[in-house]
Amino acid sequence: MHHGDKLRRWSPDNEITRRIQNLVEERRKLVDEKTAQGNGLTDYLKIYFPQMVDWFEDLDTELVCARLTNWPSLEEVQEVPSTELRAFFHQHHCHARDGIECRIQAIRQAKPAIPDRPVIEAKCTVVKVVVQLIHTLLQGIAELDKKIAEACEMHPDFFIFDSLPGAGEVMAPRLLAALGSQGDRYGSAAEVQRYSGIAPITEREEKMGALAMGLS
Q1: Nearest 5°: phi and psi at 69?
Q2: Count of the separate structural domains present in the chain
């Protein structure tokens, strides 16, 4: 009612920008789902196979998925010959000899967390399902990464975001998706800061905000 002169007509971004925006959004959803499945996998493993949590920093990886698909329990992996374990690690791009030997030694020395066979059987069955989901999500993320990279190569403004220090392959497309390609929407750098939520605020503004919350 009072600041109509400051309003600007909204118009959608061009097709290439909207393509990146949609691809980035769907990638974020798949990553969030992968994280959720990884957390669930951690919970299951802590019950009957906690060594996996100690042996691998990240459980939502192709290496761990393949490992648990083949041998979802400690007892099963302990029955595997060392030569087969070495071949498995080499196949999944683990070539550090000392690291492989330390893992094999840890497998041989590990003790089962629980002796309850019915619990182990049930958890192993679910874990194999979860790692299949994670594997599928990893494939989907990789496919989206490929499409995002192709779209960014075609975008005339991507070089701006790609040149930002620390942006990287993931954040640069997300920055482009967030800010869009219509640079004329912003009259100054301060407007960009306010839009993105990084505008600095003064101590007085912080106190007034806290006071307003207290009164409400």
Answers
A1: -65, -40
A2: 1
Whichever domain contains 125, its CATH number is 1.10.287.4070
68, 131 in Cβ contact below 8 A? yes
**213 occurs within a structural domain:** no
* Residue 151 near residue 24, CB atoms below 8 Å: no
Q: For Cα atoms 44, 27, 153, give the angle at the middle one, nearest 5 degrees.
A: 145
More confident residue, 44 or 177: 44
Residue pair 45/53 in contact by the 8 Å Cβ criterion = yes
Q: Is the CB of residue 155 less than 8 Å from the CB of residue 24?
A: no
pLDDT (tens digit, 9 = 90+) per residue, 107-154? 999 999 999 999 999 999 999 999 999 999 999 999 999 999 999 999
Whether 79 is in a domain gets the answer yes
Entry field: residues in the chain = 216
Contacts (Cβ under 8 Å, ≥6 apart) of 170: none
Overall pTM surpassing 0.85 (yes/no): no
Q: What is the pLDDT of residue 205?
A: 53
Q: Sign of torsion, CA 95 99 101 107?
A: negative
Q: Which residues contact 82 (CB under 8 A, 6 or more apart)?
A: 104
Q: Is 164 within 8 Å of 172 (Cβ atoms)?
A: yes
pLDDT digits (tens, 9 = 90+) for 20-73: 999 999 999 999 999 999 999 999 999 999 999 999 989 999 999 999 999 999
CB distance 49 to 113 below 8 Å: yes
List the domain range (segments joined by +) for residue 39. Answer: 13-174
What tokens were used for 120? Answer: 């182990």
